[in-house]
């Protein structure tokens, strides 16, 4: 190939550049890619680049980046979506204030994943989730939500199909009692198809309530839910009603 046939990266069509850059993480785009040239910066500012914001795999970055800085970057990314954000994934650094900012800016959100965001309180969670009526996927890890908070989430998000509520059993017992979470889910989330309750304190009472009230359930994971006693009747009920069941002593 002759030298004259080589093309600059900056000369690539915008849609091709976008399909390449969208594979980068939020930090790489904001800190590096958009600074390469004007054409890349123009692509990086396109709202379509920010329909999905993934800040859930930042372990190596956190060493060099303060949580406040990550929060600023997340807000910047949300702003660039111009209301078009449909999916967001945050690990460690989300706060009540940031969650509320996302809620006010992203009425079209379909998927929310919060992993080990320990500073979020139940009130902060509720204030945000009621502003996401289109939510279909909700994942919360190591955040001890009360049954009332989950009930409000279910009532506010009638299209919720996937709930992943994973954490430590002992914390849930102290805060919720044994079956409060399960009973809230049963009461307010009838359209669930995929449910994970890893490390939850629910008993047979809570599980039966979910089976009674969630007729569309296809996938149930109750790993580390050691208060459930699987007798033959309960095993049969789960296996005949649900396509995939995972849990202790199944």
UniProtKB/TrEMBL annotation:
SMART domains, per this entry? Answer: FBOX
* Entries under InterPro entries matching the protein: F-box-like_dom_sf, F-box_dom, LRR_dom_sf
Q: One of this protein's Pfam families, by short name?
A: F-box-like
Per UniProt, residues of the F-box domain are 6-53
Superkingdom of this protein's organism: Eukaryota
The record's SUPFAM superfamilies line, in alphabetical order, gives: F-box domain, RNI-like
* Range of residues in the leader sequence: none
Protein name stated in the entry: F-box/LRR-repeat protein 23
Native species: Camelina sativa
- Report which gene this protein is encoded by: LOC104747570
